[in-house]
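If it is no trouble, might I ask you for a protein's amino acid sequence along with its backbone structure tokens?
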Amino acid sequence: MSAGSNGLDNWTRGWLLASVMSGAGLLVASLTVSAYNGTVSQTLVQANGRKIIFIVAIPLVGALIAIAAILVRLRHARAGVGTFTWLVICVLGAFTFLGMFTIGPFVAPVPVCLLMAAVRIKEAGRAKSQKTRRLPLEHVKGPEAT
């Protein structure tokens, strides 16, 4: 597990990148992929108007906000991902659940990837704190104890 200059290992960076790419892919797909197969083939934006772009952009914006919050915490040498990042992940999870029968399944990779990255950061912080933990003084035996 090699950590880069920002303190994230490759797997964590991969999960964060996957969350952004999933959100960006959803946004691009809403603009380019034919979503309705009836008499006229239309994209999601053509069928629902430009206002749908704001709804489809929520996962991408949420992922970028969560990543920014993680990087700020790492820059200030704080452990874990923080309450704000967990809140963003929960909001994206709720958005996925509420949109379960529409775009929810397509949004699901974003909160799942953020969750995986957050858990990896939490576990890395826990392992680091256990490695640097010092024993209490009563466990240290000096030369007079022998």
Observations:
- The CA atoms of residues 135 and 141 lie 11 Å apart.
- The longest helix spans residues 109-132.
